[in-house]
UniProtKB/TrEMBL annotation:
The keyword Amino-acid biosynthesis does not apply. It holds the Pfam family Lipase. One of its GO terms (cellular component) is extracellular space. GO terms for biological process: lipid catabolic process. The keyword Transferase does not apply. Keywords: Secreted, Signal. Residues 1-22 form the signal peptide. It is found in: Secreted. InterPro entries: AB_hydrolase_fold, Lipase, TAG_lipase. This is Lipase domain-containing protein.
Length: 315
């Protein structure tokens, strides 16, 4: 990966991302590092944003450098998880290594670790507000030129979080990648309360555990059903593994963009039975799947050595 020659310099104030700042100029942006006092009347825990350099070193929070011309990828973890959870961290690292983008990992684990699942679901709009404010802040300061430069990736509850945030940004985010969006509490929810096609300009969804934890219904512009969407070959019958392995799948597709051939399946039932239409061209499931892709696809992942996928456990 090329080291960017020009950097914007920004300093982040993590609490509520309320920055006082000089107007951005060209590609170098200097931000006043004065930290505003947190608004204690707002009953919300911290959301943190971690920026990485091209060598996956965490940047000093007072000295963030991002390349003005690169796209931004925002990765959001799920319930009982954090940016430092093995598989999430691995995907973050792969994004830094294999894409030419600025990568940010969002830490909202204060919400996802202490509260009950349904409490977090109820508060999702509040967390989405943080995310939206933060993105608007980057945009207002010229750190990102437009939401056309932004890809958001979310796992499980994080998939609904970015979906919700995407609605609030009027669907302007270029690409939303929903990794096995959570099913509990979302099965019958209104489409504006979860990830759906209006969350971004292009919404791709990967389904890997539709029996219990993951949403079964197609909700994106394109929906990929891995191994019928139900049980994953590397997971035997471990449901949590099936829900989490989707992070490994996306990471694998960064390393090898043709790792996951996707075959057209015409109905959800066909996808689940792995009945595919061989007359239609196959596509590659990866972070660059063309934004014109529509409909349902079946992917048949091979069984991998479990050791490769051993970092499942959510901390
Ligand atoms: C960023 O984009 C501008 C305008 O497109 C260009 O002039 C400049 O060289 C680019 N900088 C880098 C580091 O690619
Ligand atoms: C913005 O850039 C221009 C040209 O590089 C420079 O003359 C001007 O002083 C800069 N403004 C600020 C506020 O830094
Ligand atoms: C930074 O912001 C604080 C608070 O608004 C202000 O008092 C201070 O003068 C600013 N510093 C600079 C260098 O702009
Ligand atoms: C703090 O948050 C409350 C509740 O949202 C709001 O009414 C108040 O104006 C905020 N105060 C400041 C200083 O931002
Ligand atoms: C900020 O980071 C850049 C790039 O890592 C480094 O060259 C520079 O010395 C740092 N500045 C400060 C004040 O730490
Ligand atoms: C993420 O946020 C939680 C809650 O604020 C905090 O305890 C934890 O240290 C943070 N994680 C990292 C890796 O900094
Ligand atoms: C979304 O639409 C609202 C209402 O029209 C507008 O105020 C807001 O600026 C828009 N936001 C974006 C990111 O387009
Ligand atoms: C990428 O994956 C495909 C499908 O498994 C395989 O045929 C191909 O050899 C792999 N390419 C590389 C460079 O590993
Ligand atoms: C879709 O992708 C093409 C090629 O990358 C790009 O030119 C076009 O602007 C994209 N359209 C949307 C709506 O993002």
């Amino acid at each position: 990966m090329n080291q960017p020659t020009t950097y914007g310099l920004i300093a982040l104030q993590f609490l509520f991302y309320r920055l006082t700042i000089a107007a951005p100029n060209t590609t170098v942006v200097a931000i006043n590092t004065t930290v505003a006092a947190p608004n204690t009347t707002i009953d919300v825990p911290r959301v943190q944003y971690y920026f990485f350099d091209d060598n996956y070193h965490l940047m000093d929070e007072n000295n963030i450098t991002i390349s003005g011309n690169k796209t931004l990828i925002v990765l959001v973890h799920g319930f009982r998880s954090s940016p430092w959870t093995g598989v999430v961290a691995d995907l973050g690292k792969s994004l830094v290594q294999w894409t030419n983008s600025n990568v940010v990992l969002v830490n909202w684990s204060k919400w996802t670790q202490k509260m009950d699942y349904t409490d977090v679901v109820v508060r999702l709009p509040t967390v989405a507000t943080h995310l939206v404010d933060w993105l608007n802040g980057l945009h207002d300061r010229g750190i990102i030129q437009s939401f056309d430069d932004v890809t958001m990736i979310g796992h499980s509850l994080g998939a609904h979080l970015i979906g919700y945030a995407g609605h609030r940004l009027n669907g302007t985010i270029k690409r939303i990648i929903a990794l096995d969006p959570a099913q509990p509490n979302f099965k019958d929810s209104q489409k504006n309360e979860r990830v759906d096609v209006d969350s971004g300009q292009f919404v791709m969804v990967l389904h890997t555990s539709t029996m219990f934890l993951g949403l079964r219904e197609p909700v994106g512009h394109v929906d990929f059903y891995f191994n019928g969407g139900q049980m994953q070959p590397s997971c035997n019958s471990d449901t949590v593994c099936g829900h989490v392995i989707v992070l490994n799948y996306l990471a694998d597709s960064l390393k090898n963009s043709s790792e996951f051939k996707a075959y057209r399946c015409h109905t959800l039932s066909d996808c689940e039975k792995k009945i595919v239409d061989n007359k239609e061209p196959t596509i590659d499931m990866n972070i660059n799947t063309p934004n014109s892709t529509r409909g349902l696809y079946s992917v048949l992942p091979s069984k991998k050595n479990l050791k490769i996928y051993s970092r499942f456990f959510l901390k």
